[in-house]
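Feature request, filed as a ticket because there's no other form

It would be nice if the structure record came with a short human-readable summary line next to the tokens. Right now we just get the raw output. Example of a typical job, pasted below so the devs can see what we mean:
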Amino acid sequence: MRRIRTVAAANAFLREHYIAEFNRRFQVAAAQPGTAFVPYRGKDLERIFSLQFERTVNRDNTVSFQNLTLQIEPVRWRGTLAGCAVIARQHLDGTLSLSYGPHCLGRYDERGDPILNLKPAAGKAVEKTRAGKVKGRLSTALGNPAKCAGSHFSTASAAATETNETGHFTCYKNRTF
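Raw output as currently delivered:
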């Protein structure tokens, strides 16, 4: 009997004696060399590590969740989501999100206020100089959309490119906005 009476003494005993004795008695060599961990394969961990609740969209395009009313902004691919079953997710950082199938309908803070999307605004205006160079940075993985063959970039406040839903630029030929 060790006659341990304080938390500090118990912690010292664990560190100095018990853990080493436990490992000596119960440790088993691995059946195969290497690690048991597998690489991350592209799953959305933020979705996986969240509490998920099914809710039905109200007639005014809102969702009620934990005494909050979450307003869903209009979407281009459907007139209204009223009556649809959506998934409300409560994330580890306290934020909320709504999704319908693969579509994210909105992100909200813990008070239910929308979190603004920080993606670059679609359809920013660009200006072509007399030397033919475009002012501003529009580089993408596929190159500069301003260099698309046959493109016309108006000098007025008009958009010549826009970012689609996947984040790729679309370049319009001979089109004035």
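Something like this underneath would help us a lot:
The helical segments are 7-26, 45-48.
The first strand starts at residue 50 and ends at 56.
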